[in-house]
């Protein structure tokens, strides 16, 4: 467990670039260099993590830790990988909350918002290329984005993802069926997830209870991980935080290594200002917990489920709807908060070119946008 913790702690300190980059780091570290699992096992675990709600890269680390040393290894992997970004974002929330507003701070935060716009636009383009190759999936992407622009809200998100899953399970090109012996799920984890999902909203009479319930719900419903958590967390935080505060936290999450879901650490600290560290911890654990419970519950029966063509079709539809959800979030709140003048659009377009075409690292792009905002201010 100590060895697992140290390996993941190092990755938590150095893994910049978001979920896709994290998966690459994991493959090189645990398959190629350490040989903790082979390439086929790695691919199977990755496929399950992509299907389930929650943070895909953190779930993959959790699965690798479980494969190596059971539940203790899984928890050691999670703590090691999450701890650096948790501390950085929680401390950022504490520090920013004590700073008086001034021209330089406003300009720096605006630079971070422009960075968020560039990164989300890049994620939309990458995910559309990966998950929306056919007319059916492209139509689902556009319909989901249009529905959320017209009628934003969590109910619209869930309805569009459900419709996409049913449509693709019926109409998408399905792979050939395979045979695999059935092994049941881990029922205690599944029951605990169900009880928490249904019961926590009933206990949300206080600020702390409402925070736990809202972040647990967000972690239970976000498919795709990474940037896709943005609109769900916005729903959770909209009553307590302004759009500017939310987007600032999202921008800061781009600058730190490790999982993007630790945006919850920043938001939780601001939502419970009298107990900021407790709020950061509770929000982070509540957001990560659903995905880990479902991963633990469905791991035993994953191989048998994977052999069913209809499930593969439903996953195709969900992925396409997720891209539409992210496309909708690109406009609100990201675009509306970041692009306030033509010069902002010029900076964002230049940043997107540097990131996608010139392959400029995210940290270098962040420094460039911050410097540009400060000079313009």
Automatic annotation (TrEMBL):
CC annotations in GO: plasma membrane
Predominant place of localization: membrane
Topology term for the membrane: Multi-pass membrane protein
InterPro entries reported for this sequence: Chr_Tranpt_l_chain, Chromate_transpt
Regions crossing the membrane: 74-96, 108-128, 140-166, 186-203, 215-233, 276-299, 311-331, 351-376
GO molecular function: chromate transmembrane transporter activity
Keyword annotations from UniProtKB, A to Z: Cell membrane, Membrane, Transmembrane, Transmembrane helix
Location within or outside the cell: Cell membrane
Family assignment from sequence similarity: Belongs to the chromate ion transporter (CHR) (TC 2.A.51) family.
The protein's name in its UniProt record: Chromate transport protein ChrA
Organism: Aeromonas molluscorum 848
